[in-house]
Amino acid sequence: MAELKRREGLRFPARPSLPAPGPGPAALPLSRVKLIMKSCPDVSSINQDALFLTAKATELFVQHLATCAYKSSCSEKKELTYNDLADCVENSETFQFLADILPKKILASEYLKMLEEEKEGGGRGDEEGDDENEEDDEEEEDDEEDDENES
Question: For 105-128, what is each residue's pLDDT tens digit?
Answer without folding.
Answer: 888 888 899 899 888 875 555 444
